[in-house]
């Protein structure tokens, strides 16, 4: 009911600016226009930007890379710096993978192949022994083991 009354008042007083225009700062829903060009929030932000620039100038720290980017790219400096940093991080990840990941993967693959080949030679030996037993082969002293491996 209170909301409906408020809506009715706002509709009746719309051409005069609504209820809050009549009461001004005392209105319970009054929102001051602090974001206007002459508003306090805008003034505060401008003051903070000026203070930040002043502190950066007076810090005594000069970054020659930043000056070079400023001279080279002008207003695109921030975009180009972020692009170059992204490329640098991507390159670092690739180098890390190349120096660490690839040798580890290579060692794992070599171990896998060796294990597969040794398992295959074990199976071949088992088949050979099985076939030799079925055929009654008993001359084990004359077998050349180097041929089987």
Structure explained in plain terms:
With 149 residues, this protein is an all-alpha fold. The chain has 6 helices and no strands. The radius of gyration is 41 Å and the shape is elongated. The termini are far apart. The model has no long low-confidence stretch (mean pLDDT 76). Keywords: Membrane, Transmembrane, Transmembrane helix. This is Syncytin-A. The chain crosses the membrane at residues 78-105.
Assign a percent range to the helix content. over 70%
- Number of contiguous helices: 6
H and E string: HHHHHH
State mean pLDDT (0 to 100 scale): 76
Q: Radius of gyration, Cα only, in angstroms? A: 41 Å
Q: What percent strand?
A: under 5%
**Strand segment tally:** 0
Distance N to C terminus: 95 Å
Helix/strand/pairing class, anyone? mainly alpha
* Sheet with most strands: none
Q: Which overall shape is indicated by the principal axes computed on the Cα atoms?
A: elongated
Quick structural summary:
The protein is mainly alpha-helical and about 150 residues long. The chain is about 70% helix and about 0% strand. The protein has helices spanning about 1-10, 20-25, 40-60, 65-75, 75-135, 145-149.
């Amino acid at each position: 009911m209170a909301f409906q009354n408020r809506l009715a008042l706002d509709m009746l007083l719309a051409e005069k600016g609504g209820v809050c225009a009549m009461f001004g700062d005392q209105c319970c829903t009054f929102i001051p226009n602090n974001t206007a060009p002459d508003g306090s929030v805008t003034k505060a932000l401008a003051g903070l930007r000026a203070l930040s620039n002043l502190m950066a100038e007076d810090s005594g720290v000069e970054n020659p890379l930043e000056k070079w980017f400023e001279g080279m790219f002008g207003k695109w400096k921030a975009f180009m710096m972020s692009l170059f940093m992204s490329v640098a991080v991507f390159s670092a990840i690739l180098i890390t993978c190349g120096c660490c990941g690839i040798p580890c993967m290579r060692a794992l693959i070599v171990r896998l192949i060796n294990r597969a080949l040794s398992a295959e030679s074990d199976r071949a030996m088992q088949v050979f022994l099985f076939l030799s037993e079925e055929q009654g082969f008993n001359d084990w002293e004359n077998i050349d083991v180097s041929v089987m491996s």
